[in-house]
Design goal:
The complex is a heterodimer of chains A (261) and B (227). Chain A has helices at residues 42-49, 78-85, 103-116, 125-142, 158-170, 188-203, 215-221, 239-244, 249-260, and strands spanning 4-13, 16-26, 31-36, 57-62, 65-69, 88-91, 176-180, 208-211, 224-229, 232-237. Chain A is α/β, with parallel strands linked by helices. With 227 residues, chain B is mainly α. Chain B has one domain: Orthogonal Bundle (MetI-like fold), CATH 1.10.3720.10. Helices cover 80% and strands 0% of the residues of chain B. Classes of the chains: A alpha/beta (261), B mainly alpha (227). At the A-B interface, helix 2, strand 6 and helix 3 of A face helix 5 and helix 6 of B. The complex binds adenosine-5'-triphosphate (ATP) and magnesium ion. Residues 42-43, 180 of chain A line the site of magnesium ion (MG).
C-alpha cells in the first residue's frame, strides 16, 4: 500500500488556480522528485501537504488514514491539524532555523515541547531529556556536524544551517520528509554537502519528496519524478522515462534548458 | 543670602523634591505606556479594518502634534467644557500629565512594537508549525525573544527621550525639577534672581540618563549572542 496518496488536489489564491487536480502516490522508502518551472505550484503543493495552506479540494491520505478531505470540514480542525502535520517534515529553502538557539537546541526544541504533553513527563523528566538529547546529537553527527552542535545559526555556513534544518525535521521522525529547493539559497560550492546528506537519507530508504532544480541530483536520487507545469502534473515516471524519454513537448523544452545551459 | 555655599543645600533640597516628581512621572508613563502601546499595536495590526484604521488615525494625530499642546488640551479642556477643572491641585496636575504622557508614549511605543512584531520573518512561525508546535509555544519559545531583540534599541532611544520630555509637564505647572529650579528665579525660600539652579537641573538629567544608558546597553548586549 502506498504511504501517501494525493487525489484531485486543488488550490486557489484569490482568483488564480495554482494547483489544478493534482494526483499522485508514493511508496514507503521511495524518493519522489518534483521538477518544473518557476510558478508551476511546486512550493504550494508541499505547503498543502504540510498544512501551511488549506487546499480547496481533494484528499490527502497517509498510511491509509485520511488526513484531509475537502468534503469533510471536520478534517481541518485546528487541534487535529497539529497532529496531522507530524506525518510530514518540511525543509525550507531559507532554512528558517531559530536564531536564538544553538544547532543542538534547534534539533531538540520541538521534541521537548511534544514530550511535555506526555502523561509520564513529570516522573521521567531527566530520562526523557537525556533521550532526546542523545538522539539529537546522533542526528547532527549523521549530518557531519559533530563539532558544530553548540554553535548558533549565525555562526554556521548556509550548508551547515541547512543540514541542521534537516536534522531538526528528522528528529520528529516524520513518515515523509519534504524538501523545497534545499540548495537554492546556497553558494554553489556548498550545495554538494547538502545533496550528499540527502543522498545518504535516500540510501537508508527515508521516504522523501524533493522539489529541486538540480536535475543531475534528481535523476540520481529519485525513484519517481513528477514534472509540474502551470499547476498540473504534466508528466511522471521513472527518472529515465522523464529525463531520457520525455513524451511531452513542454517537458523537453524545460529539460533542454538544463542540458544546454 | 548671597553665598552660593549657603544657597546650595536649600536649592538641592528643592531640586530633589522636584526630581522625585520627575521620576514619578517617568515611571508612571512607562508603566502605562508599555502595555497600552501593545494594545494599540495589536489594534493597528487587526484584520478588523475599522479598528486598525481608528488606531492608525489616533497614532497619526498623537505623533503629528506636539506633546506640549496635548498636555495643555488635557489640562484646560475639561475646565472649558464643564466650567470647572477636574484636575485639582498638584495631584490633579500629576494625573493630567500622566494621562498625556501615557497616551503620547503609547503611540510611539506601538509603532516600535509593530516594527518588532512584523520584523520577525514569517518563516519562523511556519517552521514552528511544521514541527508541530502550538501557536502559543511558537510565540513564547520562538518569536518573542526575536521581537524583544528588535524592540530594545529603538525603545532605549524613546526612554531616554522620555526622561527629558518630562520637563514639558512644566507647562501645566507640575512641580517637577524644572519648575523647582525656576522658582529661585522668581524668588523662593529667600533666594531670588538666581539662574544657576535652573542650569543645575541638567546635572540630574545627565546622571539619570547616564544610568539608564548603561542599563539599557547591558540589556542590548545580553541579546547580542544571536542575530
Ligand atoms: N500566498 C500567495 N498568494 C497569492 N498567490 C500565490 C501565493 N503563493 C504563491 N502564489 C502564486 O502561486 C503560483 C505558484 O507558486 P509556487 O510558489 O507554488 O511556485 P513554485 O513552483 O514553487 O515556483 P518556484 O520554482 O519559483 O519556487 C505562482 O503564480 C505564485 O505567484
Ligand atoms: Mg517554490
Amino acid at each position: 500500500m502506498a504511504i501517501l496518496e494525493v487525489e484531485h488536489l486543488h488550490k486557489n489564491f484569490e482568483n488564480t488556480e495554482v494547483l489544478k487536480d493534482i494526483s499522485f502516490s508514493l511508496e514507503k522508502g521511495q524518493v519522489l522528485s518534483i521538477i518544473g518551472s518557476s510558478g508551476s505550484g511546486k512550493t504550494t503543493l508541499l505547503r498543502c501537504l504540510n498544512f501551511l495552506e488549506k487546499p480547496g479540494g481533494g484528499r490527502i491520505r497517509v498510511n491509509g488514514e485520511t488526513l484531509f478531505d475537502a468534503e469533510d470540514p471536520g478534517s481541518m480542525q485546528e487541534s487535529e491539524i497539529r497532529k496531522k502535520r507530524l506525518h510530514f517534515g518540511l525543509v525550507f529553502q531559507s532554512f528558517n532555523l531559530f536564531p536564538q538557539y544553538t544547532a543542538l537546541e534547534n534539533v531538540m526544541l520541538a521534541k521537548e515541547l511534544l514530550a511535555k504533553a506526555q502523561p509520564d513527563y513529570k516522573a521521567r523528566k531527566k530520562e526523557i531529556h537525556a533521550e532526546i538529547e542523545s538522539e539529537a546529537k546522533s542526528l547532527l553527527k549523521q549530518m557531519g556536524l559533530a563539532d558544530r552542535m553548540t554553535n548558533y545559526p549565525h555562526q554556521l555556513s548556509g550548508g551547515q544551517c541547512q543540514r541542521v534544518a534537516i536534522a531538526r525535521a528528522l528528529a520528529l521522525k516524520p513518515d515523509i520528509l519534504c524538501f523545497d529547493e534545499p540548495t537554492s539559497a546556497l553558494d554553489p560550492e556548498l550545495t554538494g554537502e547538502v545533496l550528499k546528506v540527502i543522498k545518504g537519507l535516500a540510501d537508508q530508504e527515508t521516504t522523501m519528496i524533493i522539489v529541486t532544480h538540480e536535475m543531475a541530483f534528481a535523476r540520481d536520487v529519485s525513484s519517481h519524478v513528477l514534472f509540474m507545469d502551470d499547476g498540473c502534473i504534466l508528466e511522471q515516471g521513472t527518472p529515465s522515462e522523464v529525463f531520457e524519454h520525455p513524451k511531452e513537448e513542454r517537458t523537453k523544452q524545460f529539460l533542454s534548458r538544463f542540458t544546454n545551459g | 543670602m548671597e553665598l552660593i555655599t549657603e544657597q546650595f543645600p536649600i536649592v538641592i533640597h528643592s531640586l530633589n523634591i522636584g526630581f522625585i516628581q520627575t521620576l514619578k512621572l517617568f515611571f508612571v508613563t512607562l508603566l502605562g505606556a508599555v502595555p497600552l502601546g501593545l494594545l494599540i499595536a495589536f489594534g493597528s495590526m487587526s484584520k478588523f479594518r475599522p479598528l486598525s484604521y481608528l488606531m492608525k488615525v489616533i497614532v497619526w494625530i498623537i505623533r503629528g502634534t506636539p506633546l506640549m499642546i496635548q498636555l495643555l488640551i488635557i489640562y484646560y479642556f475639561p475646565g472649558l467644557v464643564f466650567g470647572n477643572s477636574i484636575w485639582i491641585g498638584e495631584t490633579g496636575r500629576f494625573v493630567a500629565a500622566s494621562v498625556g504622557f501615557i497616551f503620547n508614549y503609547a503611540c510611539y511605543f506601538s509603532e516600535i512594537y509593530r516594527g518588532g512584531i512584523q520584523g520577525v520573518p514569517k518563516g519562523q512561525e511556519e517552521a514552528g508549525l511544521v514541527l508541530g508546535m502550538t501557536k502559543s509555544q511558537i510565540f513564547f519559545k520562538v518569536t518573542l525573544l526575536q521581537m524583544i531583540k528588535r524592540i530594545v534599541p529603538p525603545m532605549s532611544n524613546e526612554i531616554i527621550t522620555l526622561v527629558k520630555d518630562t520637563s514639558l509637564a512644566r507647562i501645566i505647572a507640575l512641580q517637577e525639577i524644572i519648575w523647582a529650579g525656576q522658582s529661585f528665579l522668581k524668588g523662593s525660600q529667600g533666594i531670588a534672581g538666581q539662574i544657576w539652579p535652573l542650569f543645575f537641573t541638567a546635572v540630574y538629567y545627565l546622571i539619570f540618563n547616564g544610568v539608564l544608558t548603561v542599563l539599557l546597553g547591558r540589556l542590548e548586549k545580553k541579546l547580542d549572542y544571536f542575530r
